[in-house]
Amino acid sequence: MKSIVISGIFVAFCFQANAQNTILKDTINISRAEAETIFLKNNLKLLSEKLNIDQAEAQVVQAKLWPNPTLEVSEINLWSNAYSEQLPPISGNWGKTSQVGVSLEQMIQTAGKRKKMIAMEKVGMEMAHEYFKDFLRVLKVEFRSNLTDLQYVQQKQDIYKKQLSSMQKLLKAYENQSKQGNISRSEFIRLKASELEFLKEIGDLQKENNQLQKELKTLMNLPSSSHLKIINDKFVPELSKLNFINLADLTSSALENRPDVKVSILEEKYNERKYKYELAQHTPDVTFGINYDRGGNIMNDFVGIGFSMDLPFFNKNQGNIKSAKFDIEKSKYAKTEKYNEAQNEVIKAFEDVLIAKKMYENTNEEYEKDLDTLLESYFKNFAQRNTSMLEYLDFVEAYLQNKTIILDSKKELNEHFEELQFVIGKEL
């Protein structure tokens, strides 16, 4: 028995020390909307992912550029011998025995390769935009889920701290009465045991709080000394938003708005343009050139033109053309699968949110107020010795269970509502 009391003192000391450490931090009282604004502005992953769009736009710019011409200067002799022919000097008296060759070449892409490459990269740019939207969609639902969890934990902590405060008031009175011999020591120990249970639950909740603080501060790019306190607003979504929606509209919205669905469509489009580009590769490019030769030909100053091209006897790009054709087929299967996946996710999320809504409506605010009023009544009657300890503690346990159920119903409704918004690809 003595060891239980000592353990209780130790747990209470740890809890108080932890509370003091929390106070030393920079507490930020913030609403969900304000937190999300900071997240969207400061999240480092989002800032990094957004650079992929800039890279895709740069690839479009690159595809529009013409190939560079090639300049070649050759056949320069640095000395002469007895057999060197005399030529008109290049400058002044210099260059009578100097030879030089200069050529300039320009490759011309045939079969519209450049336009086809630009078309491919433009689709790639569209895909980069949709990839970013999908990344934002996933990260946002993770952030909102952490917000909901933190709000849930903080509200549950408040419930247990309130009960702990009431319990500690009773304990102080019972300890005095026990010392005076007015009540048995066993009653005091029973209350002390309940206090320990509250302290342990609050300690476990604080650990969850710490973990969520870490996740949210990382997502919001806040200083490590910050401590978030979520204002209790919009923990439960507006139920009116759910009264005017139907499954057909939600499914249609998912196919129109979800970035991952759009990406599957763009991938098919990209592969179709890639196939056209590979077909164009079958036609060889032509390189035109002009060259000048001084002293190395039948004329002292020779100027000539010419062209060169590959002869597609062996390599007609057959393998790449065939591979690109298979990519089109694969992307069609992937698109159909994504369509099916999106529709099934909408049905599941819609049914889940209706179940959560029904559960929440059964735990209305009036019932919660009745619980609080009844608890105060039990507390007063127990303090006045009109209610036995067993009855009081049984009600406190039932009270905490019901308050937890009410909190759980709010949390689940919030989570399923966010999941529904996630799978349809837009805010309701």
From TrEMBL:
Keywords: Coiled coil, Signal. Residues 157-222 form a coiled coil. InterPro entries: MdtP/NodT-like (IPR010131), OMP_efflux (IPR003423). Residues 1-19 form the signal peptide. SUPFAM superfamilies: Outer membrane efflux proteins (OEP) (SSF56954). Belongs to the outer membrane factor (OMF) (TC 1.B.17) family. This is TolC family protein. It comes from Flavobacterium qiangtangense.
